[in-house]
Amino acid sequence: MLILHRLKVKSEGPKLVPFFKATCVYFVLWLPSSSPSWVSALIKCLPIFCLWLFLLAHGLGFLLTHPSATRIFVGLVFSAIGDAFLIWQDQGYFVHGMLMFAVTHMLYASAFGMRPLGLRTGLLMVILSGLCYAFLYPNLTGAFTYIVGVYVAIIGFMGWRAMAGLQLVGAAWRWTELAAGTGALLFIVSDLTIALDKFCFPVPYSRALIMSTYYAAQMLIALSAVESREPVEDYRLSKAK
């Protein structure tokens, strides 16, 4: 079984080459964030566009017959829109970007599903989300007091659903669930770094940390959709039996 998992992961590698190249372009060019432009927005969104192509490379029929993969694809679309908004965050579009990513997280959570429920994982995420918000709260003012609270709850919920089905040992182990859980954690790290840097204190090398964890998170979440070509819900039902 482990050999089959390794072969499957290896087979996905070539489809991710454009993503890795686009990510390298972003970090090599390193366009200044102080001068937002449509060119910098395109360069920032290019790796996400490549993840669209990565999922489309599995066939339109695959997306149409796998609701979870479709939701992840749509989530990547909203992510690209959010990335573009955040290019102009200093011009008043930060909240617009947050809204797009909130939709992304809800789509991802829906893709990961509600089975198994994983109440212990959910409780852990509630505690961690509460601690993060409590740390940020003294530095929040105005509408951000509520907006950030709602966003923390949404991304925490996404993290719960991504990790609820994670099993590291046994016959039920799936590399895609590990990818989803790791991707969700990296997404949380990326967004928490954004929040700390914007509301609390300057984070050293914040942009490099934010973007490296963000691109890795999106790649892993996109990978989590492609293990099986049978409908995900049918797979979960068969596993439950």
Automatic annotation (TrEMBL):
Compartment(s) where it occurs, according to its Swiss-Prot or TrEMBL record: Membrane
Pfam families the record matches: YhhN
GO cellular component, one term: membrane
Membrane association type: Multi-pass membrane protein
Keyword terms, alphabetized: Membrane, Transmembrane, Transmembrane helix
Molecular function terms, GO-annotated: alkenylglycerophosphocholine hydrolase activity
Main location: membrane
EC number: 3.3.2.2
Record bears the keyword Membrane: yes
Transmembrane segments: 16-32, 38-57, 69-87, 93-110, 117-137, 143-163, 175-196, 208-226
InterPro entries: TMEM86B-like
Catalytic reaction(s) noted: a 1-O-(1Z-alkenyl)-sn-glycero-3-phosphocholine + H2O = a 2,3-saturated aldehyde + sn-glycerol 3-phosphocholine; a 1-O-(1Z-alkenyl)-sn-glycero-3-phosphoethanolamine + H2O = a 2,3-saturated aldehyde + sn-glycero-3-phosphoethanolamine
PANTHER family, alphabetized: GH04784P (PTHR31885), LYSOPLASMALOGENASE-LIKE PROTEIN TMEM86A (PTHR31885:SF9)
Similarity annotation: Belongs to the TMEM86 family.
Protein name, entry field: lysoplasmalogenase
Native species: Bos indicus x Bos taurus
